[in-house]
Amino acid sequence: MTYLTRLLSAAAVAMLTALPASAQYFSADQVVEVSLMPGYRLDGDRHMAAIRIRLAPGWKTYWRAPGDGGVPTVLRLTQADGVSGMAIHWPRPRVFFTNGLRAIGYDGDVILPVEFALDADGTAQIAGRLDLGVCQDVCMPISVDLAGALPDVQTRDGAIAAALSDRPYTAEEAGAGAVTCAIEPIADGLRVTVRAQVPDTGNNEALVVEHRDPMIWVSEATAERQGGWITGVADVIPADHGPFAMNRGDLRITVIGSRMAIELSRCTG
User: Fold this and answer.
1) Would you say which domain of life the source belongs to (predicted)?
2) Is residue 73 predicted with pLDDT exceeding 70?
3) Minimum mean pLDDT range among 17-21, 206-210, 251-255
4) Does domain 7-165 have CATH number 2.70.20.10?
């Protein structure tokens, strides 16, 4: 086996679409296999591991911001011996439509590189849970328990390195220009209008706005392109559904199309 531990359990199946009487029902292990790839050391205090998700033909899973038609993929650590921090390096997703709703994610196999900050030399030990959704004609929420060691080895894993290279471009790499975020209060939060000078990213182009705080909900942005500029409007709603002070630096903006994705790390007023 190429993974350390695989404990797969399906949560209650949520039927997000109406099913015909002849619909086929699936169990989690028929449609998805999730494994922890132990990875390699980048230097003395960083380690690059990954999570491999293998999907049955025709099934999809989702990005960190999945759109109205998807389920977010979330990794939570329950044990972190020798580990002080974690970051997922998301490969470039694609935009697709399910029952008229836009979703952002992956089909086929996907590798999610996970970088760990280490606070000690030698082998580190982790355990955690990956929550994700998998969809075809029906959608299932899945919880996967993963555990294993992060060995002190320097040999790079080619599959993880390839997933790292398949990331969204930075603004500088893509030749993007100015990005502005106009903010106005609404009854239950704030409305953000993003205007960005970015090259055309391809078909099914989407502009995604995220907030650093996962407890703050951001609506799916409506987007319109005119030449070299794309404009998107999204509502940012806090838990108490009221106006609040927001730092533009807390926003992450990504433009995703069929040819490439571009991550815009900052915007001005």
Assistant:
1) Bacteria
2) yes
3) 17-21
4) no
Domain 7-165 and domain 169-264 have a common topology: yes
Q: How far apart are CA 222 and CA 93, in angstroms?
A: 18
Taking the domain 169-264, which CATH number applies? 2.60.40
Q: What is the pTM of this model?
A: 0.86
Q: How far is it, in rounded angstroms, from Cα 134 to Cα 106?
A: 10
Quote the DSSP letter at residue 215.
T
Domain boundaries, the chain: 7-165, 169-264
- In this prediction, residue 5 carries a pLDDT of 31
Which structure tokens are listed for 189?
Answer: 């939060």
